[in-house]
Amino acid sequence: MLTGKQKRFLRSEAHHLNPIFQVGKGGVNDNMIKQVAEALEVRELLKVSVLQNCDEDKDTVAEQISKGAKAELVQVIGSTIVLYKESRENKQIKLP
């Protein structure tokens, strides 16, 4: 689990990032979770945008993706989800 200090650090790191995944009408599926997990291995930190036509609640979507990709949920702000997962191959982010 991340500490409050680490989450604050990750939020500031994620601030300038653009969402690279969008969850829409179809909701969360296995293929999306697999892609998010692969992207996290490369980037460690990413944003997912929940579109207005998504049938599920954004907190539910955040939980499904973070559990499925085995990632830490940094925050849900507006309709944007910030996820972090330490990379095994290319570690870039040094947590405080």
UniProtKB/TrEMBL annotation:
What Gene Ontology terms describe what this protein does at the molecular function level?
A: RNA binding
List, for all copies, the residue spans of the domain called CRM.
1-96
Give the matching Gene3D superfamilies. Answer: YhbY-like
InterPro entries assigned to the protein according to its UniProt record, in alphabetical order: RNA-binding_CRM (IPR001890), RNA-binding_domain (IPR051925), RNA-binding_YhbY (IPR017924), YhbY-like_sf (IPR035920)
Q: Does the keyword field hold RNA-binding?
A: yes
Q: Which UniProt keywords apply?
A: RNA-binding
Q: Which Pfam families match?
A: CRS1_YhbY
Q: Which SUPFAM superfamilies does UniProt cross-reference here?
A: YhbY-like
Q: Which PROSITE patterns does the annotation name?
A: CRM (PS51295)
Instruction: Specify the superkingdom.
Output: Bacteria
Q: What is this protein called?
A: Ribosome assembly RNA-binding protein YhbY
Source organism per entry reads Metabacillus mangrovi
